[in-house]
Amino acid sequence: MGVGQFAERRSTDARVLIITDRTELDEQIEKVFKGVNEEIHRTTSGADLIEKLNATTPWLLCSLIHKFGGKEEGEEVGDIPGYIEEVKKALPPAFKAKGDLVVFVDECHRTQSGLLHESMKLILPNALFIGFTGTPLLKADKQRSIEVFGRYIHTYKFDEAVRDKVVVDLRYEARDIDQKITAQAKIDQWFGAKTKGLNDVALAQLKKKWGTMQKVLSSQSRLEKIVADILLDMATKDRLQGGRGNAMLVSGSIYQACKLYELFTSHGFDKCAIVTSYVPSISQIKGEETGEGETETLRQYDIYKKMLAAWFKEDPDKAVQKAEKFEKQVKEKFVKEPGQMKLLIVVDKLLTGFDAPPATYLYIDKHMQDHGLFQAICRVNRLDGDDFGALRIDPPPCSQN
């Protein structure tokens, strides 16, 4: 039954609230409903959420779970003593959520076993809660989704989704960074792929780049080896070379992501970008000057500044203030123009709730496990005309213990 049909058949006081825990998912939910001409109110703050619940309209809302506690995404609640009492005190006098509320909680394996969940139940004591998850919690010290929301209404397994062609299957390839990528066969493979069908003039020009590529492949630097490996894929893998597909690289830290970006661009690969939680600000680098050269903080700021300046083609001091605009534009290009944005270097962002059908390869250079790993690898299982997404990992995503 479609949303419009539900709107027509629902009782006069029925209301629906959709809860998630990531801004990207909240934005996506709003976009999906508006895409089918269904008006949905996306709450702007904790106060806005309470105000709308205390009224009888709108009937369809979406919100971050954090707003039940007056928080925003990223603000930790932890085990704050007296937190629930503070939430009670913050409610307007005679507050009561209006209507017959059904609450759909997306990604219910996260943020639903602690104080935020308690706050939600406190504010909506009579609501019906339905949780959705693809990755139930595995850790022994937290409640599993089934313990919070009750028995399963329906389960749909990954192999069933593949069989139904809802998602594509995944191929896993473990790559050892200590591999001898200095082998001549690797260099010849790259050069052969790049020179196929070229005339003598173009071949001569490419030989200059070949010298640089050989230098990258011969480097002892761990990050340079990763860059060289991915550049080889970009030159030889059909979807990456043809511009139909692109890739994501998960890095272990923001600073490391910046260094990887710098290496890619230094070797002529500029169809890439960094998307992380880092927002460059001049206040972050005050007092960072040292007599021994740049600190990591300065280097990170400088790389971001140059990246933003190159993207917006303007003065670096102006461009550095446009990090949020940059992220929005980069994500859009990655989804809509994979041949022009072939690689996103990330740390934690875009590993949940980011739907990009062209994303074919996921390179993981970070320790990951449990539901976080599963969520990440599902970035490359979106339908886009191929049978498989590809997962390439170094080091292994989780320990063998």
Give the C-level CATH assignment of the largest domain: Alpha Beta
- What is the name of the CATH superfamily of the largest domain? P-loop containing nucleotide triphosphate hydrolases
What is the ordering of alpha helices and beta strands?
HEHEHEHEHEHHEHHHHEHEHHHEEHE
Distance between the termini: 47 Å
Q: Please indicate the percent range of residues in DSSP E strands (runs of 2 or more).
A: 5-15%
| Strand arrangement, major sheet | 6-11-10-7-9-8
The portion of residues assigned to helices is 40-55%
Per DSSP E runs of 2 or more residues, the count of β-strands stands at 11
Q: Tell the overall outline.
A: globular
Summarize model confidence as the mean pLDDT: 79
In the CATH hierarchy, the architecture of the largest domain is 3-Layer(aba) Sandwich
- Describe the largest sheet: 6 strands, parallel
The third-level CATH topology of the largest domain is Rossmann fold
Structural Rg: 24 Å
